[in-house]
Amino acid sequence: MNISVIGAGYVGLVSAVCFAELGHKVIVVDNDPSKLLILKEGRVPIHEDLLPELLQRHLSQSLIFTDSIAQAVRASEVIFITVGTPSSSTGDADLCCVEAVIRELAMHITSRKVIVEKSTVPVRTCDSIRRTMELNGAAPHLFSVASNPEFLREGTAVMDFLYPDRIVVGVDDSYSEEKLSQVYAPLWEGSYYRREGLIPGDESHSPRFIITNTKSAELIKHASNAFLAMKISFINAVANIAERVGADIDQIKEGVGSDRRIGPGFLNAGIGFGGSCFPKDVLAFRAVARDAGYDFDLLDSVMRINQDQRHQFLRKVRDVLWTLRDKRIAILGLAFKADTDDVRESPAIEIAKALIKEGCHITAYDPVAMPRALEQIQTRIGDGTIEAASDPYTAAKNADAVLILTEWGEFASLDLTKLRREMRLPVIIDGRNLYRPEEMDAAGFVYYSVGRAPVFPSDRISAAPDLMFEEIA
Ligand code: UDX
């Protein structure tokens, strides 16, 4: 099929290359000339596994980039809108970019199209799109409007697209149902999983193809993200209780997550969720509920617990290090989660900023997010500073403590002896629970994590710092 994707952001880019991978001809539209230049050269502006390979595979053959909405509209049967919908000051999604695209689409439409909203938008946006199309002169028989929420996680977005649990399409007429069924047929019929040269995964995969009306599809997206965010806040709240009563959050997670009704996913306690989706989408859902006349105050608690989780972590750092001014701290991880260079709403960035403000000297290492992170953080705030290190061990040099803030795989398999040798004090405060406390105890560290008892042997803390290493070794 001939498909357009308008907006080459995270969702748009991943969707576009994956549509090409499914066998469609795809035109990607973006109004950022520098981004278009990079993409036309076959380079990817974000760190996302498999995206560079797929871009190389399909560029110029079934995937082209342009700044012309007119060209895209003329050539396509189905047009996906994937422009950004940031939070406004009241928490509502700001739909200005969507509206601007729709106005331009309306001007160029001359034959029947399906316009598919894929950005995360409030319920009833499809209705607003229909009205705006008509107001701007598009004849109603020339277009249908549908909703097709995405459930792509950064870092695994290509695999999430090609091997999804479910594909949800919200349609209000049979024409869009037919077209969207065709778009996704290689996945729900399974022909993609039998194809040679496919991106390998579980080839017995069979995603559910769920057809709903547009409003339900819009709500499915909000409800899914809000529910996952709620799971994270819930386990973080339980972790706080576990810490206070001497229980272990890993054991609790196993016990609770083994109930099939609950499931083990998204029950990792830590420093709270970040990223471009959960914080924005929970606020947007709250606003949607308010507009619909329902007070969904559970979502306020989800956000409050999430915010508090960062403060709890900072409190832990203060508990261990006492005063913070002039302490040297190594931070491992600044991305909002592993396998991405995205630092939007990253709890790690907020924690780093707070520590710099308190006068700490931070040396930070992140495998890919360092450049973006340093754009977000002033390198000097008051008396505190931050600088980048080239690896975890350099970051840890002379550190009073190492803080693990992103769950990168490489941080879970550090050479602990080497790390300890670099540090001034053997203190690790792990915001992602990457190690077992016993393991850290055996390696001679004072170890604090989330929802588990700290390892803080009194003989170790009473020892003079320079004696600690020998004694513990
Ligand atoms: C999320 C949704 O998962 C995806 O379906 C949606 O379309 C976009 O938003 P993403 O933001 O890429 O994806 O990341 P995700 O893997 O969901 O993690 C979000 C945040 O929650 C991260 O900060 C992560 O570290 C945190 N998290 C996740 C936890 O703290 N604990 C967990 O158990 C899982």
Give the low-pLDDT segments: 462-473
Shape: elongated
Task: Tell me the radius of gyration.
Answer: 24 Å
Which percent range describes the beta-strand content?
5-15%
Structural class: alpha/beta
Q: In which range does the helix fraction lie?
A: 40-55%
Taking the sheet with the most strands, its summary is: 7 strands, mixed
Major sheet strand order = 11-12-10-9-13-14-15
| Distinct small molecules bound, one entry per kind | uridine-5'-diphosphate-xylopyranose
Characteristic terms for this protein:
14% strand, binds uridine-5'-diphosphate-xylopyranose, alpha/beta, 19 helices, 7-stranded mixed sheet, 473 residues, 6-stranded parallel sheet
Structure description:
The protein has 473 residues and is of the alpha/beta class. It contains 19 helices and 15 strands. The chain has helices at residues 10-21, 33-40, 51-58, 69-75, 96-108, 125-135, 157-162, 174-188, 214-245, 249-257, 278-291, 298-321, 347-357, 370-376, 392-395, 416-422, 437-442, 458-462, 465-472, and strands at 2-6, 25-29, 63-66, 78-81, 113-117, 143-147, 166-170, 208-212, 328-332, 361-365, 380-381, 384-388, 401-404, 427-430, 446-448. Helix 9 (214-245) packs parallel to helix 12. The radius of gyration is 24 Å and the shape is elongated. The termini are far apart. Residues 462-473 have low confidence and may be disordered. It binds uridine-5'-diphosphate-xylopyranose. Uridine-5'-diphosphate-xylopyranose is lined by residues 150-154, 225, 228, 232, 266-268, 270, 273-275, 277-278, 336-337.
